[in-house]
Amino acid sequence: MKTSVVIATYNGEEYIEEQLETIKNQTRTVDEVLVFDDLSQDGTALLITNFIEKYALSNWNLIVNKANKSYSRNFYEGVSQATGDIIFCCDQDDIWNEKKVENMVACFEENSKIQVLSGNYSYKIDKSLPVSMQFYYKAENFKNHFNTTVKSVRFSSKGVFSGGGPGWTLAIRKEYFNKISPFYSPVFSHDGFFNTFSSMDRVCFKYLGETGEFRRYSGSTSDSSLVHTNEKLNRELLLTKNYLERVKIAQNYLEQKEEVNVKQQQKILFKQSKALKARQNYYLEKNLRSLFRVLYSWKSFNPVWVVKDVLNYGTLGKSEQ
């Protein structure tokens, strides 16, 4: 099987070299590495160029986009251009285990049902995060246990949050990517897109062995601790709107699957749509009653969202000042 790694970068000079090192040092050499830089304003592109030249990596290529595409489309179009049978997605600031590619490719080779595979990981926690988030990630590390099992990931009550893991742990068969590609929309992150559709199709799996460290720090893509209250409010409203659109796309996809029974999945998505509308009202009304409506639907959300919504309650009133 030919392997590709697709990396999407933007202003990632702080950690990009460490990330590249962990790809270069894989026990199974990657056949193709494509780095798509989204017009970084720092030295990211230069660092990547120098890294490729330093190690004479003839199978690595840096492509600097002519216009900023955004995180989601940059990954999606990058995977479209990759030529591997198995395509690994890679962020710019995490740390891959040296046997990640070797172990995950073996899973694909041993089980033809696997179309999307994620991996287990630990959190690398930076002290710049709020204490509450540090505690959450430490608790997750404590609960986690690595083994070589591969498990099926079902489409759960979490609906479009379903899936095996974050984008940097994911690998996808190019053949399956081509199948679901017509349903892509920028409202999806690349990992949300792959996870949602593969879990609905019952072809999503998770390798429980260690694949690396997920760096969490203030300023990372998923951290909003430094965002101004008004910006945070608008960000959460936009995020909720995007997830409502994800639900609609997933519902449309299920309507076309006449050969299988999708009633349970449709029921999950209907409940999730109601839960997301409750969250939308919470950020508009900014009161305790609307927060309770969100908490009542906690099973429809990613746990991080629930923690975030509770923490945001104390600051929502400031947005009106």
Automatic annotation (TrEMBL):
Residues 4-141 form the Glycosyltransferase 2-like domain. Keywords: Transferase. PANTHER family: GLYCOSYLTRANSFERASE, GLYCOSYLTRANSFERASE TAGX-RELATED. Belongs to the glycosyltransferase 2 family. Coiled coil: none annotated. This is Glycosyltransferase. The keyword Metal-binding does not apply. GO terms for molecular function: transferase activity. Pfam families: Glycos_transf_2. InterPro entries: Glyco_trans_2-like (IPR001173), Glycosyltransf_2 (IPR050834), Nucleotide-diphossugar_trans (IPR029044).
